[in-house]
Amino acid sequence: MIESYFVPDQEVQFEEEIKQSRFISFVFPVTSEPEFNHRLAEIRQQWPNASHYCYAARWAAPDNDVSIKSSDDGEPAGSAGRPMLALLSGSDLGEVGAVVVRYYGGTKLGVGGLVRAYTSGVRHCLTLVAKRQKQLRYPAQVVCGYHELMDMEYLLNKFDALLTARYFEQEVRVEFEVSIKQWPALLTAVQAQFQGRLQLMALSVRLN
What we know:
Oligomer: single chain
Distance between the termini: 14 Å
Structural class: alpha+beta
Largest sheet: 5 strands, antiparallel
């Protein structure tokens, strides 16, 4: 299971002319399908009256083949969207989208020529885009006494857990996110620190 992966840190744009057709390529970070659709709509508005707006996207981890989509947008089947998606897959980036805007220049490129044209700009963008590493964390919680909260938060910080919420009731319920890699060590540390009084509960089966 992937515990971390790289994602684009910014949007990159590249433009080229191929046999009188103008191709404007975009590669950008995206974390959901609605977010991708919104960026695609913006590009359509920014570059109106183009012949085609072909795209590919994966808004999850690089090994996730469910949260993906692609489109040839009227070009011959398999000449744009799928080759673009193959490039994104080969980049090992997660949470990444690509759109290529084409203004037709009057010269037909053929399927092979279209594949080369639509992947050229995306490939160039992928060489330029800045990347950052995303660490996957999964939700869990613990209930502790008020006097134990400071020590509990110290351990969460020590094991790179991200505190997401505190609920102050009769006791304090602390919600946090932690990586699979750190989960066993955090369990052991909490057991030792509080002599078994506190129990961590994973809110995701991935930690069990």
